GAF domain-containing protein
Amino acid sequence: MLDELQQLVDDLATELQRSVAVDDVAIQLLAASAHYGAIDPPRIDSVLARRADAAIVAHVRTFGIDHAVDPVHIPDSAELRTLPRIAVPLRDGSDLYGFLWLIDADPPVTPSELTMATKGARAITELLRHNAAELDDLQAQDTPLLAGLFGDDRERRDAALAAVTGPDRLGAGASLRIAAIRFRDGDDDTAEAARHAVTRSVALRQLIGPALVAPVGGYLAVVSRAGPRPPSAAWRERFWSTARAAEPALAVGLADQLPGESPAASFARAAYAADVAQRVGEFDGFACWSELGAWQLLFGLPWTAATARELHPPLAPLLRPEHRLLATTLLTYLDSGGDAAATVAALHIHRTTLYYRMDKIRDLVGSSWSSGTGRLGAHAALVLATRLAPAS
């Protein structure tokens, strides 16, 4: 499909003698022609990086392109270094498949050129519509396959694994890379629309290659071949930006199948990584299991205040709401490896204040947290209790 799309884009650019680009609904680049006439730095950057800058994406969306039926004129922006543009929605009825872009400068696009561009956009829309229909058919096949792959029935799981790693899907001997995408709570129609946006994403398929995509247990599972190395930062950024283009998308967790591990266990780790990515700010919505560090210790445990207390029972009095300041102090001290100077700097307090608080902590809960496994349990309990602030 991408070869056909590139040919349509190149033919239209030759006809217009203007640069043409096509993005999907996430404003991820699918195809771009050779440069004709005026270009700007964002055009060059998007072609080289295969994605648009987030600030530019936010800017163009303010002009209502996601709901437009007719071409939309977008003025230049000195701040963003952009020339004027025209966005032609690639729309078939209520279904939006992306946008065709023209630079509207040196000279501006004429009415006859816009008519030609609109005609070309119709052919591109039909190609993307046909591709989306094929992806919908694939998801209809993927849904029972992944349900079996991640299920408890061993016979069904073995049959699903044979199909998934067969020549028609991921290929023989494939080790699995599993992404779990979480969505915001909402009505069923909104969630279904979000899942469809990701499932139909050409940019995502282009990024990960052959894949199976289907809803599984409250997540959207994306199963592809694991590469020989962990995914790069650029790969993860493109994956996350594509996933969150479906507005209700909250977080992505990623896990590569370990040797001898069942696909269900791999999916459970990916789903947990998504939970951490959603609830822990430092991950900014995307977490790989392999990079969770100490957060792996909480895998399989309910994220509740009761769990925090059970992780280190002597610490329970410190976990009450009225002692939150002391709990934060001890957590920062443990995060800093017991370094008083680093703790003082992190909390922006005087060293004497730190010593006073540490004495109060010892008076309240003793010193069971100060060495060995006690420190490990106390640290985990404080992370759960203070950073996540779970309900009792």
Summary: The chain has three domains: 2-132, 174-292, 305-387. Residues 177 and 256 are 4 Å apart (CA to CA). The beta strands are 20-23, 29-32, 72-74, 85-92, 95-103, 176-183, 211-216, 219-225, 249-256, 286-288. The chain is about 50% helix and 15% strand.
